[in-house]
Amino acid sequence: MTESVPVGRGGMEAGRASGAQTLQDTQFLTELRQQMLKFARLQLRDDDQAEDAVQEALAGALKNADSFKRQAALRTWVFSILKYKIADILRYRQRVIATSELGDDEHREQAFMDGLFDSGGHWHKAERPSSWSGPQGGVHSDHFWRVFDACLNGLPEKQARVFMMREFIELESEEICEQLTLSTSNLHVTLYRARLRLRACLENGWFEPSKAEEVTP
Amino acid sequence: MMDCKQATRLLSEQQDRNLSRREKFALKFHVFMCKACRNFGQQMGTLRDLARSYAKGEGNTPRQSEDSNSNDK
Ligand SMILES: [Zn+2]
Q: Which one of B33, B39, B70 makes the best mutation probe of the A interface by having the most chain A beta carbons within 10 Å?
């Protein structure tokens, strides 16, 4: 019963030795560890807890490593374990975060919204979302992910935290509300603001870089 | 008629809760008329897909992390 192979991931018929080989690839492991640390730190904002989560996730994943033929499949699997670890830590973390600490700056948000929409509630011309189906669409290059990282890092603290809980860890709305003592409408508006910012940032930084220059002061 | 601010708010909330029949109807009408909000709606789906990929480790190339200034032989 120790052979609890994760279902539906990696070619499990692929066979022996491949997983072990993957694990002997120290460069791959080192890189994987770094990737995981970065991901965990981003969300936990606590180096020790991030280290612990990564350590546990790796240890847990490596037990089943033999069932993975490809490094990519192993990485996906390890990250899914890491997500559970992060969710656990967030769940058990004391809810001492004062509501004020997690507050959004309402003046800033008002100014942000005024920058996007006119007084009638319609998009300012320069801010209208464009189609992302152009030549840059579907590109998941390193460069793209650097832009994505930068946009994520540009989010205000509360928005980033809530967005990551919802979209990275895939917690349900109710659970996020409970953990952060947020009202449902507060959660919704926070996610809305985060998405408005992220999409604008991605559009200017990646999908339609020319658009950023058109914006008049 | 619903304005873009309201429409985008619902397009975001749609990812987190079920909209009421009335909301859906008004939203559908707005999006039909408004290309910008139509694009916004598609981007919400893309954003979710991107986040899922990122959380699978796709977006975390080690090169870009600040503590990777170390040597690679
Ligand atoms: Zn609109």
A: B39
CATH entry 3.30.70.120 includes domain A99-215: no
Fold of A19-96: Rna Polymerase Sigma Factor; Chain: A (1.10.1740)
| Amino acid identity at A20 | A
DSSP structural state of residue A169: S
CA nearest neighbour of A82 among A90, A71, A70:
A90
Residues in chain B with CB shorter than 8 Å from the CB of A148 are 50, 54, 59
Query: pTM to 2 decimals?
Result: 0.75
Domain extents in chain A: 19-96, 99-215
- ipTM for the whole complex: 0.83
Helix or strand or coil: residue A123?
strand
Q: Phi then psi for A84, rounded to 5 degrees? A: -65, -40
A76 touching B (Cβ < 8 Å): yes
Question: Looking at the complex, does the CB of residue A149 fall below 8 Å from at least one CB of chain B?
Answer: yes
How far apart CA A63 and CA A30 sit, in angstroms, is: 17
Contact between A37 and A45 (Cβ < 8 Å): no
Q: How high is the mean pLDDT in each 10-residue block of chain A (217 residues)?
A: 39 43 73 90 89 89 70 80 87 58 79 95 95 71 86 90 91 88 92 97 84 51
Q: Which residue of B has its CA nearest to A130?
A: B39
Task: List chain B residues with CB under 8 Å of A75.
Answer: 56-57
